[in-house]
Amino acid sequence: MRIKFLSSPHLSLLLTISTLSLSSCSLSVPLPPPLPILPIPTASQLRWQQSEMAMLLHFGPNTFTDSEWGTGHADPSVFAPSSLDTRQWARTAKENGFARMVMTTKHHDGFCLWPSAYTNYSVKSSPWLDGEGDVVGDFAAAAEEFGLELGLYLSPWDRHEPCYGNTQKYNEYYLGQMTELLTRYGDVKEVWLDGAKGEGAKYMDYYFDRWFKLIHQLQPNAIIFSDDGPDSRWVGDEAGFAGSTCWSLFNISDVEIGHTIEEYSEQGDPEGTDWVPAECDVSIRPGWFWHSSEKPKSATTLLDIYYRSVGRNCLLILNVPPNTSGLISNEDLHVLAEFTNIRTAIFSINLAENSTVSSSSVRGNGDTRFDASNVLEESIYSYWAPKEGSPEWVLHLNLGKPISFNVLQLQEPIQMGQRVIRFHLDAIVDGEYKTVINGTTIGYKRLLRFPSVETRFVRLIIDEARADPLISFIGLFVDSYSTTNDLDEDDKRFSSKINTVVRRQWPRRHGQFLNGRTAEM
Ligand code: FUL
Questions:
Q1: Which letter, b or e, does each residue of 410-444 get, where b requires 16 or more Cβ atoms within 10 Å of its Cβ?
Q2: What EC number(s) are associated with this protein in UniProt (predicted)?
Q3: Nearest-CA residue for atom 6 of ligand 1
Q4: 3-state DSSP of 183-208
Q5: Stretch 209-233: mean pLDDT, rounded?
Q6: What ranges do the domains of the chain cover?
């Protein structure tokens, strides 16, 4: 065998060819997506957040005794719904855009809506279906039939159970009940742990760590809600309002369940190391349970709540309490249908849909995966990405003709982390750019309302971000239902809040934001 050695001119020619072919090869290889910025959501948190709205149902002896916090001594015979129909609840949830139903399987009064083996204070001691019924079973079956996710509320505070106050015994009791719930009724997608406990209640410790671990072991896809996560956090008020600045970032170790710092929970923490998005709970009526004397909120009030919860990067969980018949009342059905019609009227026509979009830069070399036009598709899985290290981050929209609008919708691909700290929208009015609205934080979804603007050209400027910003959706809409009182204020004051309130009040861990900058006008 002969080995032929190349002479040096041959060798250098070969090297040049291979270098050329290598570099042309690397030219045709697309740039991968940018690195996610931590923390990022789990698959369950992503699914949960994209569902946007859940329905909460408070039902139990309190419904029949006209109370909110039952003493735990109501006779089980009071629980006697005449025409309980969990399918009506599920149909209502489905028709009105709720993806999940969460029911009080046991409220603070300790009465169980399923036949628990660990107590007789339950449906089995009630006259309903001669003690043979199981509301949780019916509820789970209805959720499945209507394609809804199932969520269960199990109150830690129990005013009936005699062992409450004995830490060891009650933790065993609570986990025994939790295990029944999580092993009997199929897939459970949310477990709701309410941190409430009345003054004067017996002192005891809840073994949260063990509870969370067991819940995730039995139902790995379940989101655990509490004041402090681990998967979703209480927003900190019962009005359904998140902060105008709202991060899904949070520091679990800075909060103790039952001792919420309202402002911290409402706003989240731009430097938090845990991904714990906020859930906004509010009742359609003044009380959580049904009372004959109370009326539901108006559809426009619900719309305002929607803007301040879903429109602020949160999940809205709206309580719709069944009445003593075991049905959602007609008045509530009516308001819910109106709320749905209003949302459809506003959000089914995106006036930016046919615009031509351009941007200050695009990641990669003409790679359509990161193109500015991706912001017209309403999905977090397609997005605009700027060139790495660009000096400015701007998206320009040419609407084709002058259009009037008064609502802006923005979305970030949160699977890549929440990035945007501050942004503003400009429009060309009378021949020059004027600022329409300033805002802070986008997250999964941000909705902002402002006085109507007529223009053909708008631009979105990202003023500050934790990393190169990624934008997955821009929509412009007309809302003729909100009043001028509901408009979002100029959010400049909230951007200064990031630097003052947030930075001063809570323990800081990581110093400055990354990549903060002011875009050139
Ligand atoms: C509170 C409870 O005390 C109320 O009764 C209700 O369940 C609400 C959702 O949470 O903390």
A1: bbbbbbbbbbbbbbbbbbbeeeeeeebbbbbbbbb
A2: 3.2.1.51
A3: 288
A4: HHCCCCCEEECCCCCCCCCCCCCCCH
A5: 98
A6: 43-347, 356-516
Report the nearest atom of ligand 1 relative to the CA of 195. 11
**CA pair distance 376, 350, nearest whole angstrom:** 9
Tell which one of 113, 194, 232 to mutate to probe ligand 1, the residue whose CB is within 8 A of the most ligand atoms. Answer: 194
Task: Residue 281: count other Cβ atoms within 10 Å of its Cβ.
Answer: 23
Give the CATH H-level superfamily of domain 356-516. Galactose-binding domain-like (2.60.120.260)
Indicate the class that CATH gives domain 43-347. alpha beta
Residue 292 DSSP code: T
Which residue type sits at 515?
N
Cβ partners under 8 Å of residue 182, min gap 6: 152, 188, 191, 215, 218, 219, 222
* CA 473 – ligand 1 centroid, Å: 35
Structure tokens at 497: 């809040």
CA 159 – CA 146 distance, rounded (Å): 34
pLDDT tens readout for residues 122-177: 999 999 999 999 999 999 999 999 999 999 999 999 999 999 999 999 999 999 99
DSSP-derived pairing of the beta strands 100-106 and 149-154: parallel
CA 195 / ligand 1 centre spacing (Å) = 8
Residue type, 204: M
Contact 316, 53 (CB under 8 A): yes
**How many Cβ atoms from other residues are within 10 Å of residue 222's Cβ?**
22
- Which range of 20-29, 410-419, 479-488 scores highest in mean pLDDT? It is 410-419
pLDDT tens for 294-335 read: 999 999 999 999 999 999 999 999 999 999 999 999 999 999
Residues paired with 410 in a beta bridge: 446, 474
* Rounded-to-10 torsion of CA 198, 199, 201, 206: 70
3-state secondary structure of 272: coil
Distance 194 CA to ligand 1 centre (A): 7
Question: Phi and psi (nearest 5°) for 370?
Answer: -115, 10
Lining ligand 1 with CB less than 6 A are 68, 194, 196, 281, 288
The strand pairing partners of 53, in sequence order, are: 316
C-alpha to C-alpha distance for 409 and 13, rounded to whole angstroms: 57
Q: If you average pLDDT over every residue of the chain, what do you get?
A: 90
- Candidates 362, 453, 352; CA nearest to 406 is 453
In the chain, DSSP finds a helix count (H) and a strand count (E) of 12, 16
Q: Return the axis-axis angle of helices 299-309 and 330-347, rounded to nearest 10°.
A: 60
